[in-house]
Amino acid sequence: MPSLPPPPYTPHDTQTASGDDEEDELWRMLDALEISPARRPSTPPRSAPVRTVVLQRLLARPPAEAVAETQGVSGASPRRIVPKSKPRTKKGGYAVFCGRGIGAFKHWNEEVVDLVVRVPNSLFQGYRTLAQAQAAFDYAHARGWTRVIHEDGTVSTTISWPPTPDTHHQGPAPNPLHVEGSGPFWYVVYSGIHPGIYASSLECSLNTLGLSSAAFEACATRAQAVSLFDAAVAEGRVRHIYPTLK
């Protein structure tokens, strides 16, 4: 007697499934979508509700699980879940040390952008308050570390020449330039406006940025920086550089 053909595959209503029956039905649906390579149905599903039910289940799971299990599912669009970045602290003031104009300013768009954006060797720093920005600028300006950059590339500065005797080789005390900490490195400036040891990359940049013959090095500790600077002094490798004036 000839055998009867198997009944057509009909998706089970998972809204009412429970226990082992529900788990078995989920496996059948995953097999139909080719998520598991171990088993495949003999005939493809003829109904769209299977995909809809599976995706509804995945949407109810944590994002990481949903992304992992929708890989290879036709019609699904898994996306990498990226945590939102922390909002940046709003700046209350900006110190423009090198730019088309220099000084302390309150507003980025209205005052600072045109002074530094697309200006070679411009240098600025944001601070929590306008008062902090003004103190930082005044500190740098008094040492001749500020420069007006003209359109032809030349600069104007207030630096006195020859510079005063250097005292930075023992390591500078905290100053308004880095009111929120000096960072993990010490910087040895061998050739720059004021050679010496500095506790922040900002101070290093103020002494070397835009100077083609400047030389500096970052160190993990102040003791290492002092040793390197003293050795450079003994070997005659420390040199003051005067910025080009208009």
Automatic annotation (TrEMBL):
Give coiled-coil spans as residue ranges: none
Q: Annotated region Disordered: where?
A: 1-23
Mind telling me which Pfam families this protein's record contains? Cauli_VI
Query: What name goes with this protein?
Result: Ribonuclease H1 N-terminal domain-containing protein
Tell me which residues make up the Ribonuclease H1 N-terminal domain. 94-136, 186-225
Q: What ranges does the record list as Pro residues composition bias?
A: 1-10
Quote the InterPro entries the UniProt record gives: Ribosomal_bL9/RNase_H1_N (IPR009027), RNase_H1_N (IPR011320), RNase_H1_N_sf (IPR037056)
Q: Report the domain of life of the source organism.
A: Eukaryota
